[in-house]
Amino acid sequence: MSIFTNRDGSRDGHHKPAGYSAFDLFRRGLLGTQWPRAWRSHDLKPSYDVVIVGGGVHGLATAYYLAANHGITDVAVLEKGYIGGGASGRNTAIIRSNYLTPEGTRFYDRSVKLYETLAADLNFNVMFSQRGHLTLAHSDSALRTSRWRAEVNKLQGVDSEVIGPEEIKKLVPYLDTSEHARYPILGALYHPPGGIIRHDAVVWGYARGADAHGAHIHQNTEVLGIEVANGRVRGVRTNRGDVAAPVVVNCTAGWSSLISEMAGVKLPITTFPLQAAVTEPVRPFLEAVIVSGTLHVYVSQTDRGELVFGASVDPFPSYSMRGSLEFTEGLAGHVLELMPSLAKLRVLRQWAGLCDMTPDFAPIMGITPVEGFYVDVGWGTYGFKAGPVSGETMAQLIATGKTPPLIAAFDLARFAEGRLVGEKGAASVGH
User: Fold this and answer.
1) Phi, psi for residue 79 in degrees, rounded to 5
2) Are 55 and 29 in contact (CB under 8 A)?
3) Cα–Cα distance, 249 to 210 (Å, whole number)
4) Distance CA 27, CA 286 (A)
5) Could you tell me which of 82, 273, 376, 379 has the fewest CB atoms within 10 Å of its CB?
6) What are the C-alpha distances in Å from 210 to residues 40, 76, 96, 243, 426?
7) Is the CB of residue 147 less than 8 Å from the CB of residue 162?
């Protein structure tokens, strides 16, 4: 696999990825010139300073920030399939920071800030559209929770407020805000910085950036075991051979508990499928992201005009990633209760991803009882929005040996010590 060429003509692969002018794009398109590969392929070395298991946004962001912020470049990212083919390619790419706890709000707000500058930082268009995020309230209790969240958000400096039906109607005219609706909309938590992003662009951008700094990205490389001796990690066994490493980071989703068990670390995680669907493209009409916790549904519209729908996780643990008719029927019914005018819209496809749920609906990040073995897991339905800040803080932890304050509350020890974060009220269907 060839490397990119920098603007100065160098081809060493250790500069910031080059951008292309409008003329470059036109010339390549007209002449059919072959585009250079965004990242290279390498032989698997017998040892690395850091091995990251999982080639999604979390693993790639960790590799990127290790190099960009700390100069640690002898890093291998191991992905059993293709880059971004797991949860990073199966989510609905909603970005927000209006969480319920102070810990969660601060953490996700940092991620939104990183997303806002990510295109410039990576020199890659990630298509972040901050169009606003509305969490609808259909009952007095939901409205109280919305006000609670708004006050927590404001105390952390996050733009968030409760608005009434009239303001909601102005933002989303197609919503049924009448008093005669089956589930009347009493108000909503409005979060202007929220929006959507192109998930594959984020993955490609981080992969390209990590490669430019010298990290090795290994696709089709499955981890079969983790070597531990005298309480310390020694390396990993893969389908391509053994790799020694003093640091191994578990950045997987769906399989995180299985990977951690290879190192002898048990995690309080249960895996559930989460289904989603997309419609045929139509003229853009839905600006904001709409979420209803009561109806267990959320919907946004892509730049191509497709409506992306999702719901809560399936009610049973499973590793299945197949869609179901029951899901589609239930989802369609709830969407039509919010926007009846969508009745004739056709669903094009549906899919499912795997969500690792923790008891308090917050992630598990940081050190483990095995020295040198770190985890960045348990993301449930909300992992993609945390990709940048997770990579940044995990890289800081690995480089300095000190847990960053932003992730201190998400440590594994909290479950034994009774320090649960309690994020269910803002995470279970908010996405």
Assistant:
1) -125, 125
2) no
3) 16
4) 36
5) 82
6) 10, 10, 25, 20, 32
7) yes
Contact 66/34 with Cβ under 8 angstroms? no
Rounded CA gap, 236 and 90, in Å?
27
Q: Is 170 exposed, middle or buried (0-12, 13-18, 19+ CB in 10 A)?
A: exposed
Give CA separation, 238 vs 80, 212, 262, 318, 376, in Å: 9, 25, 12, 25, 20
CB 239 within 8 Å of CB 222: yes
Q: In the structure encoding, which two tokens stand for residue 200, read together?
A: 């594959």
**E strands in 17-123:** 50-53, 75-78, 94-95
CATH class held by domain 271-287+295-357: alpha beta
At 303 the three-state DSSP class reads coil
For the chain, counts of helices (H) and of strands (E):
11, 19
pLDDT of residue 430: 56
Give the pLDDT means over successive 10-residue stretches in the chain (431 positions).
33 48 73 78 97 98 98 98 94 94 96 98 96 96 95 97 97 94 96 97 97 97 98 98 98 96 97 95 95 93 94 90 90 94 94 94 97 97 95 98 97 96 73 57
Cα–Cα distance, 338 to 341 (Å, whole number): 9
- In this prediction the pTM is 0.91
Location of structure tokens 């890093």: 75
- Cα–Cα distance measured from residue 318 to residue 386, given in angstroms and rounded to the nearest whole number: 24
Contact 45, 242 (CB under 8 A): no
